[in-house]
Specification:
The chain is built from 22 helices and 14 strands. It has helices spanning about 1-15, 15-35, 60-65, 70-80, 85-100, 110-115, 135-195, 205-240, 245-255, 255-280, 285-310, 325-400, 425-450, 460-465, 485-490, 495-510, 530-540, 560, 570-575, 615-625, 640-645, 665-675, and strands at about 40-50, 115-120, 125-135, 310-315, 320, 410, 470-475, 515-520, 545-550, 585-590, 595, 630, 650-655, 680-690.
Length: about 700
Amino acid sequence: MNESVSKVFKIIHRNRWTTAGTFLSVFTGIVVYLLITPRLYSAKVRLILDQRPATSISPLGRDIAQTPGDNNKGLATQEELVRSKSVLTKAIVLFNQSNEDSAVEKVTLGEAKQEVSTEVIPGTQIIEISFRHTDPQVTSSLLNLIASSVIQENAETIRSEARATRQFLENQIPRRQQELVKIESSISQFKQQYNIVSLEETDNKRLTQSIAEAEKVAEEISAELKQVQARGLALSKIIDQSSDKESYLSTKAGQNPELISLRDQLSNLESQLKIKRESLTDDHPDIQKLITEKEAAQALYQQKLSTILPGSSLNSNGTVQVANEKVAQELSEKLVLSVVERNELRDKLANTRSYISTLDARRKQYPVLEKTLASLQRKKEGSTESVNLLRQKLDEARIAEAQLVSNLRIIEEANKPTLPSYPNIPSFLVLGIMAAVALSAGVTLSAEGMDGRLRDLENVEELAKVPLLGVIPLQKSSRLFPALPFAELYNNLPLLESVRGLSKNIEYKNSTESKVLVITSAISGEGKSFVAANLAVLSAMLSKKTLLIDADMRRPTIHKLFQVSQDPGLQDYLRGAVNEGLPSAIHSTSIKNLSVMTSGKFSYDNVFSFETQRAKELLAEVEQHYDVIVIDTPPVMACSDALVLSQGDRQTIMVARLDVTPKQVLNRSIDILNSNNVNVVGLAINGVSSSTDKYYRYLKEDYALAA
């Protein structure tokens, strides 16, 4: 937090003239506004909102006048009523008529709408109405008229609501009566359809008992069927009949049309007899008749069965032969009768279960009928109550419409004000100063953000995505060596220590042990030549044979810094204009172990000279004779020379200058170098002072050599 505040103050200090100008402009505008603004007088009147006024003799009238369940909504509605056009127009007309002959200033609707305001007192049902005007008498008089108009308008609104309620009820009652008639008709049709008076008279209990008895009979038939099946299996084993013979006899008896018809007749008679026994006794003629028919059908069935399947057995070749032995014949007949009886019991069980399902469906129908009838009865009762209630409310609405009731009343009238309420000069001045400070700070920070230049060292490594190798302090003189270069650098202790730190960091980053150090920047004016010259001088001071090459052909600087002739130089050598060979293009300096190769004479024909084989041979040759080679190249965004000269394992240092280098341009330059596989070892920041970065405010300018 402290660092953020410190950074803000640093930005404001850096742009102090902009900040001061903005502050003075805003504050002056506020003072001028206070001088020319007319004085306004304010008054207030208070109304209270009764939830249910007792003045109405009709319950519906009190309900209509009652505020909504949410009191805040009721108060908000009344606030809107105060500011409505009808209320303000009525009050203004009354005011202008009462002051028609006086010299009091007339009030317009637009002025009233602008100056009238409302406020709800928290925790109460009180509405406070305020009005401002240049005349105090107009303020109080018009405000009281507005309050009276609000009460009248509120009463008219309640009356109109009662009228609308009455009309609604008059339309609804005939419709509800028609609905009641339809419901009563539906109940009558329902009872006629199912032949019932009430569901309590239906003998549902008897039906349930019949189902239980039928289920018991089904269980008995099922048990008897199991016994018949077991008996047939035993007979089959006794007479040692084959499965083919049993299948033949069963099939012959089961597929005969006459036997099938007789079995169906027996099954139907059994079902009819079961149904009749539910309501009649065995002595009844109908039941006796059914029993006789059943016995006759059983005798006929036995006779037909004996005729179709006489006593016989199957021989080995599958033909039927007449049984000679009486016992075998009897057993065969019993087996056939067992099969027939089993089929008869199966049919009887199926018919019984079907009968149970029919009874159960009839029993389930009764709850549905009961539910339907109960629903119709409830609809009838609800419709009857609704019609009666609507008739009662209609009478109350007619009474409420005849009354004039309001749920608003005045509890405090407006008094004539004595002092102006607007403008409040002390408050305006305080707020004006605060606004001026905030606006000036905002303008300054916005201008700083839009500037986009590198202002300090905070987050510079994260921004550039390369290590920060060192900083160079801001120099007062634009010339590096005005008289004695060696003595000047030696006596400038902050500069010397900064260059030493930069050189050491570069040395630690030199993983390839390359002799060539390429110095470049994003744009011109960042001090790359200054940094390159200082690094070369420091290298020479450390007894390293050093060569400084000025490869910036468009804006050469090295020959000016070291006060040597510009030609012959690098370009002359690359064009082949130096007949004496490479040594004649290299100039010695007053600094021991330091030589420079100036840019030479510029020619547009020699733009691509760094990409030639001669340039590669030049660098290879100087690497054999020098310990350190420092190359000052053009800016990356100006031309491609820096990319060409930085290829291979050569170290490249990017130089940026505070208050000069744009952040986006710096990032773009480093991205260009990285995308071309250039070994960018780090960043050197030029122009650092105690006011630009707190970490370097204690540079060696305060650290003098001890005497």
